[in-house]
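Q: What does the predicted 3D structure of Phage holin family protein look like?
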Amino acid sequence: MSITTDLSAKLTSLLSYLASFFTAAGSYVNDMDIGVLVGVLCAVFTAFINWFYQARKRQGEKHIQTLQAQLLAKQLQHIEQERCSHVLDDIHKD
């Protein structure tokens, strides 16, 4: 057999088993169970999405704080340089 035939046979077998599993599971549960399961899955999905976006929001806020701290440090450095140059100018005038 060729590789593609083996892969095709394995894929077909897997799909067959999955279909059998879902058919058996579908006959075992009733509508109420399916509703509860869908509700639980939606709640878990919502919690995951909320966690993901909150983590990204916190990461963005940390980045903004870092940029603001860098900006303040540059501004302070600029102010110190101006003060030093004024002091040197005053010393040279005397």
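A (community wiki): The structure tokens above were generated from the sequence. The mean pLDDT is 86. The chain is about 95% helix and 0% strand.
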